[in-house]
Amino acid sequence: MCDHTTTTPRAEGEGPFAAGAAEITAGRRTLLTAGGGLAFSALAGLGAGEAAAAAPRRFRDRRAYVLVVDGCLPGEIDGGLTPNLRALRDGGLRWPRATSLPVMETIPNHVMMMTGVRPDRSGVPANSVYDRRERQVRELDRPSDIKVGTVIERLNRQGFRTGTVLSKEYLYGIFGGRATHRWEPAPIIPISGHAPDVFTMRAATQMVERFDPHLMFVNLGDIDRFGHTDFTGQTVQVLRRLALAGTDRLVGDFVAMLKRTGRWRRSVVIVLADHSMDWSRPDRVVSLQSVMDDDPLLAGKVVIADNGGADLLYWTGPGDQRARAVTRMRTLAARHPGVLETHDPRRSRSLRLGPEVGDVLVYCRAGWRFSDPDPFTSNPIPGNHGHPATRAIPFFIGGGHARVRTARRRSSPDQAATIDVAPTVASFFGLRGAPRGGYDGTARL
């Protein structure tokens, strides 16, 4: 799930877009207008056409474009609706066993792409968490939520230009003003909180043609958003199929522009999803809040952050009762129909989710969804992700650069993941060093 978690309502003038406007008003970013009603902003003091003269000469001509086809399933690339994506995949390097990483949600996996580290280091384990300091469930949509540096900032420091074209409000929020150039997304669909792909790709094209960033990070949200609300998701997938065809056409237009302008031969195009998608019937709902509140030990002392295919449970009672409470929460959750498995993140160290994920992580089975705290209104949408059924993702690298053209192995049996994007980009641009503690991901070029 992406947008239906119950959170404390924001006051007017709050939220990611308001914060972005405040940056411009305060002079930290400069507003730059473009044709077709598009608006971009740049770091203060950086001219619209300023060259990256400080970038190492050997890497100065290279370009990397990261296109996230949000929520896409690997098999959909072969479904006949995405000939352009399939051509990019089959003409480049591909990792058929690629996966999203826990929790299989949008925000944490986009953060992993640009940091190259797991959530126990980045501080971003899910879309929604219970903020113990603020005592509310909220989305992780603030720039300060990311506790480590990104490859965007590393490129900036070494003289490269960077750009973000992010269709979703919370992605715009969490990446904030890190890039030298940023699309100020519009129009935004109020309920979905995203800009349609036709506007996103128009912005991506104009950003390339006008500002020519060395790295551009793009989120295409239509496939995910249409999938969430597609009540035919378990059968004919009417809305989903329309979104797949539309996004594929836009990607094809973008690739044609790169070839037409001569950029293709010096570029890599990294295409992947942040997670896939799973659909549930109206009667396949797991709601744990009432179960916890009916238990004498747990009543009134458990807060749940609903992430669609995953529930994050937080113990708010006395610390000396935590161990007993965690055991009880896991026992009660495991008994509920539709629950796949439960974890104590402190003990399941391989999850690497950090303290922000709470005290118990609960996954649902394929074909089910969570709806907390209210079983009817908290999450009414049929399409969800966050659980293991949505781990598999497409991951491939196209482009005309020699690093792609001359690679010996076109299809790899290795299990690539979202955390591999940052080290791949860093390697492509010859960035010196690595984050403190090194990357958790692997360079795939």
List the uncertain runs: 1-6
Through-space gap between termini: 32 Å
Strand content: 15-25%
| Shape estimate | globular
Helical fraction: 25-40%
| CATH fold descriptor of the largest domain | Alkaline Phosphatase, subunit A
> What is the count of DSSP helices, taking H or I runs of 4+ residues?
13
- Average pLDDT rating: 93
How do the strands line up in the largest sheet? 1-2-8-7-9-3-10-19-4
Q: How many β-strands, per DSSP?
A: 19
Mind summarizing the main beta sheet? Answer: 9 strands, mixed
Alpha-carbon Rg, integer: 21 Å
Structural class: alpha/beta
Task: Give the C-level CATH assignment of the largest domain.
Answer: Alpha Beta
* CATH architecture level-2 label of the largest domain: 3-Layer(aba) Sandwich
- In CATH terms, the superfamily of the largest domain is Alkaline Phosphatase, subunit A
Number of domains: 2
Protein name: Alkaline phosphatase family protein
Strand and helix layout:
Elements: H1 16-25, E1 29-33, E2 39-43, E3 63-69, H2 83-90, E4 93-94, H3 106-115, H4 119-122, E5 128-131, E6 136-139, H5 151-157, E7 162-166, H6 169-175, E8 181-183, H7 197-211, E9 215-220, H8 222-228, H9 238-260, E10 267-272, E11 278-279, E12 285-286, H10 289-293, E13 302-306, E14 310-315, H11 322-335, E15 339-343, E16 360-364, E17 369-370, E18 383-384, E19 395-398, H12 402-405, H13 421-428
Parallel strand pairs: 3-9, 3-10, 7-8, 7-9, 12-17
Antiparallel strand pairs: 1-2, 2-8, 4-19, 5-6, 10-19, 11-18, 13-14, 14-16, 15-16
Helix pairs in contact: 1-6, 3-6, 7-9, 8-9
